[in-house]
Write a structure and sequence with these properties.
Helix content: 10-25%
Strand order of the largest sheet: 1-3-2
Number of strands: 3
Number of domains: 1
Radius of gyration: 15 Å
Largest sheet: 3 strands, antiparallel
Order of helices and strands: EHEE
CATH class: Alpha Beta
Length: 71
Amino acid sequence: MPDSVYKIIEIVGTSTKSWEDAAKTAVETASKSLKDLRIAEIVKLDMTLENGKVTAYRARVNISFKYHGEG
């Protein structure tokens, strides 16, 4: 890891099943377009509600990946 630089982005994954599934969805989706993912940190969990019932679980996730620079 010497002389490495990492970028951190925040994404939100959703699931009708669970927070764990929402976080997994976020990471798996991000991995399709980002390379060298390193760390995923769940920073917030919440739910969407309709008529007093949970309709979706949401996981806000910070993901770090190796920054390769431009050019």
